[in-house]
Amino acid sequence: MTIGIIGGSGLYCLDELVTREKRVCVTPWGEPSSPLIVGSFEASPQSDVVFLPRHGEGHQLPPHKINYRANIAALRDQQASAIYGVNVVGGINREMCPGDLVIPDQIIDYTWGREHTYSSGGELSAGAGSDSSEMPIQHVDFTYPYDQVLRDNLLQQAIALGLQVHSGGVYGATQGPRLETAAEIARMERDGCDIVGMTGMPEAALARELGIPYASLALVVNMAAGLGEEEITMAQIGSVIDSGMVKIRQLIAAVVQVG
Description:
Helices cover 25% and strands 26% of the residues. By secondary structure, the chain is of the alpha/beta class. The chain has a single domain (2-258), classed as Rossmann fold (3-Layer(aba) Sandwich). Strand 3 and strand 4 form a beta hairpin. Mean pLDDT is 91; it is low at 123-131.
């Protein structure tokens, strides 16, 4: 079983991963954010892991410039049978505080202008090595955007590790790269959003179009605009990312170990 891991802000490498190969890939939709890191964890050498930093090595790509189609297609071409996407988010729900982990179960898409589908109405791509990016139109069921089995895996291992985790929540995906206004967050709260981030879509929908089970693991790094007592600063966010990614790495390793 090959497990795909997509790293978000602050997760540009997996030091625990014993790297076997660094693969440069080209898909019919272009190049992914960076070369793919292929390897396994020492505790589970039988597992195959393909790691891809969503923003590129060293955070070079803003959310709206990420080639999400190439990223998911590259993982498909590496035979990934499951994808865990790590996201850094702001908390809208007052119970989801900085440092907490959230395993969302729903998503609302506020993004615009992104290449968000493989459906172009042409012939089905042959996959790796194909020079065609055309695929037939498909209307995938997206009622439940995240795979329940993968969500359960994350929850069970988070509980076993004693991590503060919220099972469920609505992820509001915004365009970025700027942060939101207080009024926008108030609107999202009325819409039912619990957390806000910039990279949740179209990643989840593209995985569904390719039939790859996908789940999000979100780290809350700040209270969203208008909900905190102080101005949001990247220094504060960076501090929470540094400490939170320790937990993220532990949880990813545990999930990969159980398959």
